[in-house]
Amino acid sequence: ETNEAEKVVFSVPSYACQRRISLDNHNTIFTDALSLLAEKAELSNEDGRGVAFRRAAAVLKSLPRTVTDMEQLKGLPCLGDHSQRVIKDILENGVSSEVKLTTQNERFKALKVLTGIFGVGTKTADRWFREGIRNLTQLRNSAPSLNRAQQAGLEHYDDLNQAVTKDEADAIGEIVEKAVLAVSPRSEVTLTGGFRRGKLTGHDVDFLITHPEEGKEVGLMPKVVSWLESRGYLLYQKTTRNSYLESEDGPGRPSSNMDRFERCFSIFRLEKTERLNAKKPEALAENGAQPQEDVTCSISGHMQLQDKDSQDEQPTGDKLWRAVRVDLVVSPISQFAFALLGWTGSKLFERELRRWAGHEKAMSLSSHALYDNNQNIYLRAASEEEIFAHLGLEYIHPFERNA
Ligand code: DCP
Ligand code: MG
Known about the structure:
Largest sheet: 5 strands, mixed
Organism: Sphaeramia orbicularis (orbiculate cardinalfish)
Shape: globular
Number of helices: 19
Main location: nucleus
Number of domains: 4
Subcellular location: Nucleus
Strand order of the largest sheet: 2-4-7-6-5
Radius of gyration: 23 Å
Binding site for Mg(2+): 204, 206, 327
Helix content: 40-55%
Structural class: alpha+beta
CATH superfamily of the largest domain: Beta Polymerase, domain 2
Mean pLDDT: 89
Low-confidence stretches: 251-255, 278-314
Bound molecules: 2'-deoxycytidine-5'-triphosphate, magnesium ion
GO biological process, one term: DNA modification
């Protein structure tokens, strides 16, 4: 009977956007290894190799059960020689020797720590590594010039490298919604990114903001940011303005994958409430705060918590707040479906959608629009379902975009 199971041959379509990939991954032992090797490639500027490993991992994520025999991989797409060697190594030895070597590699370890700082990319991390910097202590002591983002990133390093929970994402969602409705009552806020795909944790929280009336979203971001800033919710923010209309490459043909929406990269200061920090109910009691259903998101809650600022100075060692990375994006309603699809991810799912559009349909997909290069027209869409239909793809629910 076990023999029977081992003979199971899988069939998988070649583009990740044709597959339903839930969070229920039966092959983490392989996909963790392949993802780590993708990361190693990306840290070495070998992007092509990185994508190859990510595509291989996405094939294994889509399988209905654990791979137990190399025979089962016959006919599967995206599994190159290198990925197959890694899988074989794990099947035979329980671990991949290449992964083991990588995790012990000085450069890999250092670049992981350094690129873990918000605002630090591979190029900067690599320069620091070549200057002999291997960790945060050495970085702090060598005092290279840091930009404002990197300073904030270094200051909040531990918080920002601690996973954000869904509860924390929801608490921030309520604050963002309050801010948006305060400055523009009919505007709408949507949680995107990994949390929209059903993930229970993430490295940040992503929101898309729009207004039901075209044009009314203009000027929204600075007002939202001011509202948040004046109430002490932002530890850092940098807003980049919308450059879509002035871009020369045209909406259907963006020069890069980077979209041109007005975007705010921020670091939120999130108060730890009873709800978010059930382990320390005494912390609130000590500060004289009344336990409340939803302290974080009420104005009164914020006032109480401001009182606590003085308490932060006390040598309790327990911070009463944490830093969380939050991305805000504003889209006009006419582009909302494209922005939602583009900001829900996963990154590989997005890349595969664009590859499918270009190679299979002669269309150009971005987070702003879909252009048909045969008919030379833009294809409108008011929902994600319509975009999948234009692309000739079966609709894939966000929960199944975890490629
Ligand atoms: N995205 C994009 N182009 C960018 C930035 C992001 O297309 N320049 C998309 C792809 C991502 C999504 O937006 O899936 C959100 O970006 P994140 O980096 O936050 O990725 P996730 O939310 O998927 O992961 P995590 O849970 O780690 O935050
Ligand atoms: Mg995210």
